[in-house]
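Weekend entry, working from home. Most of the wet-lab plans are on hold until the incubator is repaired, so I used the time to fold the two sequences that have been sitting in the queue since the last round of cloning. Logging both here for the record. First:
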Amino acid sequence: MSKFKWLPYLFIIALFLGCSSGKQLTQIQESAHTSFDAGNYAEALSQYESIIANYESLGKSTECQVYTQAGISALNLDQTNKALDYLKKATYTPFADENTYAAMAGAYRNIDNLSLEIEALEDYVKKYPDGTDAMQMKIRLFETYVESENWDLAFGLWPEIEPQVKVEIKQIENYYKVNEALGNLDKVEGLADQLLEMNDENVIGLEFMAKKYYNIAENRYNAEMEAYEKKKTRKQYAKLLKALDVVTENFKISLGYFETLYKLNPLPAYANYMGNIYVRFNDQEKADYYHNLGQRK
């Protein structure tokens, strides 16, 4: 019986050590939170990692409450891969929150992983529609849909973007791209007008107007010439001359926009358009000049 008489004492010692360890862990966690709140992320991360190591050594990682804070600390120290490792682990615990997914989206953005950034943003928006950063997450999600050419998803999310953001040039440009890709031409022209009202050198707006008047002029020119070729009468010729006055005016408007575009950014495509316009003006010298520019890479 003597070998069993120490069991109660051993139990008390073990209980004391367990309580002491638990108390020490709580103290470390409190200290880590203090460092985190003060922006001392290196110190906070070191303390969080000691807590994480303790839980993982016991096989109790799902009970660990500090993965998110560790991940955010690492992210602030530009340790993106480590941040993602901790944030992913947080999602397997009951302690993941909106900060987990916001930080994860930011981390994926840091490493230019668009698909996983979208996934994290979608998780945030779905899980925390009224979260502190919900609107910022929606705005960024809209931008990533545009970047990834998910036009229908971007179009569907636009109504949820707050009004003051919708009037920013960047977002109007994004919405223009969405509607252009979806063939919503009725919306596109209004957006182009809006962009030019905000900045008369906005490239998207200028391109729309330049091509709009070019196409109007070119289509009218071809239609009138075809009509005259079919019926070469004085009356038809008079009609042709009258139509060409309108055509010329539209080509001039288009040329003005393309000249502005070329000054802003001398792209070969702009030069080719100008060369084509000068062909219609019967100015072969200028037509050749701009077509030569259009051949340059």
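Second, folded right after the first finished:
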Amino acid sequence: MIRLRQLQALNYVLSSRTMTAASQLFGVTQPAMSRLIMQLEEEVGCQLLRRDRGRVRLTEEGVRFYEKAEQVLSAMRELGGIAEGLRRDPKGEVRIVSIYGLVNSLIPTAIKRFSAAYPKVRITIDMLNRARLEEVIHERQFDIALATLPVKAPPSLTIDTLGAMPAICILPVKHPLAQRKKIKAADLAGIPFVSARRETLLRQRVDDVFDRLAITREMLFECHNTEVMCQLVAAGLGVSIVHPFVRKPVDDSFVSRAFEPSIRMEYAMFRQPRGEISNACEVLAEHIMKDTQYLGTAKPSPRIKRR
């Protein structure tokens, strides 16, 4: 099979007119350059070059062959230019999928910087419940996915561990417990509680803690996302335990406190395998990794490639 490197070697020889000069420009030894030409001639089945007074010239067969070879080399240079243009000015679409709350809390700054550099790339964001998110990840219907671990995912995906932090307790600013620096599970016994939906990982882990300690909460509200949970707490309707990246409200309507025993939440970003992901996705993923460093210093290797 004729290789591109052999065609490039032939082009260098014809441009330089000598094997010695061509090998220096090509970055190989003179014997290595000669071998490349000999291998090419073996593949073609005829002599392509002849020496004439110390110079290298094409044979009659070589002239006919080189006409087509030059077209191939020109096409490869054109493809290289197109690829460079795509890297410099990518277009297209990046689809981000996430459980509720992660996108608006974790990566708005990353998206802003990315969009400033690549304004022609459209970003679509879908916030899904955990069950649907796992389906989308399993079916690989996304470019970037954000989720709490563990998640059932195809082994070919690239998983970037963003970090792990303990969940926090949020309380109305005027709640009696708001004066404490740390809230213990026992402190919430019999207190109105705003909970996440039963199918969420956060809900399952919070329930496990209270069940294990045999502490009964007054479960009055069950919400489908963190934002609604925060709004109900801000309205004074109860307390809650939420993801640690919840932003402080502008009106100081609720406060956040450390919760004990600790409920550790681990966050990750999923991507398609290398070779199947666009340059735009790679760049955005790098921004996300940089902007989520605050999630914890105890990170594993920044990129875990599962196979």
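Plan for Monday: verify the second prediction. Residues 297-307 have pLDDT under 50 and may be disordered.
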